[in-house]
Amino acid sequence: MTEELMIQNFESRCCLYEKICLYCGIAAVIFLVLAIILFVTLHIPQVFGEFTGRTARRAVRRMTGSKRQRDRPPVTFTAETAALPQEEMETAALPREEIKI
């Protein structure tokens, strides 16, 4: 008799844990959908842009009309520039007037 009670007790706990798993899965899906809705309605990407300053940099770039990356001539890699440290690689692409020593 005691073995049968232990088996029934074990089976009832398994059913309880299955129900808990199911309810937690449903809650996780609901919270995921809620998080996506809040992410979109609260304009979170714009908030990140404001905190990091990316939005301000874009606005200044639009106002000045300059694209720093496109103004530079492309870097040509040769045997001499391949051995340069990163700082010297960046200045190697600048015209001679702009190099700051």
| Whole-number count of domains | 2
**How many β-strand stretches?**
0
Q: Give the SSE string.
A: HHHHHH
Number of DSSP helical runs: 6
The description of the largest β-sheet is: none
Query: CA-to-CA gap between the ends?
Result: 91 Å
Structural class of the secondary structure composition? mainly alpha
- Principal-axis shape equals rod-shaped
Cα radius of gyration in angstroms: 31 Å
Question: Could you please describe the fold and organization of this structure?
Answer:
This protein has 101 residues and is mainly alpha-helical. The protein has two domains: 1-66; 67-101, no CATH class. Helices cover 74% and strands 0% of the residues. It is built from six helices and no strands. The protein is rod-shaped. The model has no long low-confidence stretch (mean pLDDT 79).
